[in-house]
Design a protein that fits this description.
The protein is an alpha+beta fold. It has two domains: 2-193, Jelly Rolls; 200-322, Arc Repressor Mutant, subunit A (Orthogonal Bundle), CATH 1.10.10.60. The chain is 43% helix and 24% strand. The N and C termini lie far apart (45 Å). Mean pLDDT is 79; it is low at 312-327.
Length: 327
């Protein structure tokens, strides 16, 4: 599962070597009087990862500044898995205390801080375009998960168990593992979005959206079907969407196109020969020609070109990533 491992910084107490290594990982400053530790790079299921061990008992602080984000342009997310000890991650005014068995998501396009001492953590790097297109949403940095949720325990166990394995050659199942990792993050992010303090109107709107998400792949689904299942009138259904700057029709079409983009990426990743017309039908499009036209309007290229990987980073799904604002 781990295709390769190599030390970026061998086990050392050389402070200058350590600072140089951290800068290569995207940190511009590092504060510590005494340091001992190592940094090792891995490739886990096609996802780049770095295994970092702090041996010093003194508190150490690494900073990624606004200037650094502008200079290096690192457009990816970093998942920090705490293997042992404790760390504090700060981003978007969120202070996240993570203990062994817990992890946090950091947006490397934004400033952040990491405070730790004697500990070990694994950083997994996921390109923004890949993660966003797979999830159909823009994840927010500064989110952490404790080990209470079953999904978070499954994801952490998967990562930590893999760290304990010896190097193995690439296997045909690795692309599926990458997709599974993204799916687990998707499940966690959707649970994190739940808020018990929403108004009755917001909760009803979320229910309507949930119904649409569960049935958008049905070619014959109508607005009236969604309204009836939600137990509201068609007029009120339309009002729920218009007050939030969109329509039910645009929302369903966005869901279909986002799903099509994800399936096309999956098709390329696992080198599948699944017919594009089959993907269109699976996403709720009756007519393949209509699917091609709406896909091109949305992403600026044909489904065939998208399946071959000819999409620029900013052309992948953005509507669902924008998220409909809840008043």
């Amino acid at each position: 599962m781990i295709a390769s491992r190599k030390f970026l910084i061998e086990s050392t107490s050389n402070y200058e070597a350590w600072v140089t290594g951290l800068q290569s990982l995207g940190y511009s400053s590092f504060e510590s009087d005494v340091f001992e530790g190592s940094v090792r790079r891995s490739d886990m299921w096609g996802i780049s990862a770095v295994d970092v061990a702090f041996a010093s008992r003194r508190v150490s602080r690494a900073e990624r500044t606004h200037r650094q984000t502008r200079v290096d342009g690192r457009d990816y997310y970093k998942a920090v898995f705490q293997i042992s000890g404790r760390s504090t991650v700060i981003q978007n005014d969120c202070v996240m205390e993570i203990a062994a068995g817990e992890f946090a998501l950091v947006d490397m396009a934004q400033s952040s801080s990491l405070i730790t001492n004697s500990s070990r953590w694994l950083a997994m790097y996921m390109p923004r375009r890949s993660l966003r297109s797979h999830l159909g949403m823009e994840p927010r940095g500064g989110t952490c998960w404790h080990n209470a949720a079953p999904v978070s325990r499954v994801l952490f166990r998967l990562v930590s168990d893999t760290l304990a394995e010896i190097d193995e050659p690439f296997c045909a199942g690795e692309p599926y593992m990458e997709l599974a990792i993204y799916d687990l993050f998707g499940a966690l992010l959707r649970v994190s979005d739940a808020s018990p303090s929403r108004s009755p109107s917001d909760k009803l709107f979320m229910r309507v959206c949930s119904i649409a998400k569960g049935r958008f792949s049905e070619p014959g689904i109508s607005y009236l079907d969604v309204a009836n299942e939600a137990g509201i009138s068609l007029r009120y259904l339309q009002k729920l969407f218009t007050t939030r700057g969109t329509t039910c029709g645009r929302f369903i079409q966005s869901l279909r196109l986002d799903q099509a983009a994800r399936l096309l990426r999956r098709r390329k990743l696992i080198k599948s020969d699944q017919p594009l017309s089959e993907i269109a039908h699976a996403c709720g499009f009756r007519d393949y020609g209509h699917f091609c036209r709406t896909f091109r309007r949305r992403f600026g290229c044909s489904p065939t070109a998208a399946s071959d990987g000819h999409l620029a980073g900013d052309e992948w799904p953005r509507e669902a990533g924008r998220r409909i604002e809840i008043a």
